[in-house]
C-alpha cells in the first residue's frame, strides 16, 4: 500500500513550511508503507511555493498554477498527479494533528470503508474552536441534513481519507471548485452507492491567523450548496459523468 497526502494551499507562506515539517516527521514515525506529499499552490501570490520547496525531501512535491481556482480544483489537480491507492486531504494551515492520518487509514482498512472523514463534532474530538464558528457549523449541518438527508455531522473538516477507486468515480462528476466541494463529494459518493462513510475524531487547534469566515463566504457556501441540491435533486446531474479523471502514472 502507498499513501498520497494532498494539501491545497492558497497564500500559506506563513504556515506551509511548518506544516510540512511536522507532517513529514509524524508520517515517517507512524507509517510502515511508502507515502508522498503533494502541495498544490492554488494561484498563491505570496511565497507559498518557495517556502514549500525549502523542504528537502523527495517525498514532497510542489505543484503550482497562476490562477486562483478554489480548493476543489486544487484537490482535484493534486489527486490527478498522485499515484497511491489511498488518498488523504490535509489542510495547509496545520489545524489538525497529523497523527490522525494513520488512525483514519486503519479505520478504512478494518471496516472496509469507502471514506473516513474527520469530524469536529465527534464526541471524542478535542477542538479549540470559536463559539461563532460552532454555531455556523451546526446551522449548516442542519441545512445539509434537511436538503440531502445526509447523516453526517461535519462535512467541512479538512482531513479526509479516500480509497482511490472511490475518488476516481466521484471526482469527475464534481463541479464545485470552492466552498462546498467537500459536501459535493459526499453527496456524489452516496449517489453512487458508497455508503461506508465513517466519521472519526480529530484533535484540532484553530489557526486564528488563516481561518476566517465572513458574510461573503457564508453567501458563497449557501450558493454552492443550493447549486448542489439543484443538480442532485432536480437535474439528476450526478447520474452521468462530467469528465474523465486522467491520473498520471
From TrEMBL:
SUPFAM superfamilies: Nucleotide-diphospho-sugar transferases. The keyword Aminoacyl-tRNA synthetase does not apply. Keywords: Glycosyltransferase, Transferase. One of its GO terms (molecular function) is glycosyltransferase activity. It comes from the Bacteria. GO terms for biological process: protein N-linked glycosylation. Residues 4-170 form the Glycosyltransferase 2-like domain. This is Dolichol-phosphate mannosyltransferase. It comes from Candidatus Nealsonbacteria bacterium CG23_combo_of_CG06-09_8_20_14_all_40_13.
Amino acid at each position: 500500500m502507498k499513501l498520497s497526502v494532498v494539501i491545497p494551499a492558497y497564500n500559506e507562506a506563513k504556515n506551509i513550511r511548518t506544516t510540512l515539517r511536522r507532517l513529514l516527521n509524524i508520517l515517517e514515525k507512524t507509517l510502515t508503507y511508502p507515502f508522498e506529499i503533494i502541495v498544490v499552490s492554488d494561484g498563491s501570490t505570496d511565497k507559498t511555493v518557495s517556502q514549500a520547496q525549502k523542504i528537502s525531501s523527495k517525498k514532497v512535491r510542489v505543484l503550482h498554477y497562476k490562477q486562483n481556482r478554489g480548493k476543489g480544483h486544487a484537490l482535484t489537480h493534486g489527486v490527478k498527479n498522485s499515484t497511491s491507492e489511498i488518498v488523504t486531504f490535509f489542510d495547509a494551515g496545520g489545524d489538525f494533528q497529523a497523527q490522525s492520518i494513520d488512525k483514519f487509514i486503519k479505520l478504512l482498512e478494518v471496516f472496509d470503508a469507502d471514506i473516513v472523514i474527520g469530524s469536529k463534532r465527534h464526541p471524542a474530538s478535542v477542538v479549540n474552536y470559536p463559539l461563532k464558528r460552532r454555531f455556523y457549523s451546526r446551522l449548516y449541518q442542519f441545512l445539509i441534513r434537511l436538503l440531502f438527508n445526509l447523516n453526517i455531522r461535519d462535512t467541512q473538516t479538512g482531513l479526509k481519507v479516500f480509497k482511490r477507486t472511490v475518488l476516481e468515480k466521484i471526482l469527475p462528476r464534481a463541479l464545485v471548485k470552492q466552498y462546498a466541494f467537500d459536501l459535493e463529494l459526499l453527496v456524489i459518493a452516496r449517489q453512487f452507492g458508497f455508503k461506508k462513510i465513517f466519521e472519526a475524531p480529530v484533535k484540532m487547534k484553530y489557526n486564528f491567523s488563516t481561518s476566517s469566515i465572513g458574510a461573503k463566504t457564508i453567501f458563497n457556501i449557501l450558493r454552492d450548496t443550493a447549486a448542489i441540491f439543484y443538480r442532485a435533486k432536480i437535474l439528476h446531474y450526478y447520474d452521468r459523468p462530467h469528465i474523465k479523471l486522467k491520473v498520471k502514472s
